[in-house]
Automatic annotation (TrEMBL):
Ranges of residues in domain S1 motif: 7-81
Domain of life: Eukaryota
GO terms for MF: nucleic acid binding
Name under which the protein is recorded: S1 motif domain-containing protein
InterPro entries: DUF2103_metal-binding, NA-bd_OB-fold, Ribosomal_protein_S1, S1_domain
Protein species of origin: Ceratopteris richardii
PROSITE patterns the UniProt entry points to: S1
Gene3D superfamilies, A to Z: Nucleic acid-binding proteins (2.40.50.140)
Amino acid sequence: MQKLREGDVFQGKVNTVTDFGAFVDLLFPDGSYPVTGLVHVSELSWDRVYNPRDLVQEGQDVQVKILSVDLDRMRLALSIKQLKRDPLFETLDTLMTNESDDETVNEDDILTEPLPGLAEICQELLKEEGIEEISPGRIAMERRVVSQDLELWLSSAPVQDGNFTLLARAGRQVQEVLVKTTLEREDIKAAVQRVTGRVP
């Protein structure tokens, strides 16, 4: 345990799976598995997990990141999801590509309509503490339908001078939503999750 540091990444083997997570034996360079840590159910996946057994099984090889080392209580907190990108965060370069990109095209001659439900979500976001102003940004038309339902994504870029960008997507249309805020990105994510949970 004394050799372990927060942020270290290890290969491991799932020892036991419970309703609250999975115990993982860490693989050391000498081939032994001397230390066991817990991947809490909330650290298995960025998606909501109803049953850990749907994601991992006993004996499965996994890669984990050390979240904390408690030498007093001999407890080790691990994460699987921290080694993967949070799907709620996207970059503008990924979804708002240049006009020359084969997958996305900005078309002035295509009539765009307000994305269904976006106005209601923006109104609810303005009720959240720390959200000061919301205004529309660029619009792009994708060549492929990503989702018929409205999806709201967050830019992976940090908040800069109180400015942050959301991306709303439905059908082929992508709409930037510019947010003036005093919040940090993680707090914005929490606000978005609260709002999307309230709005049908």
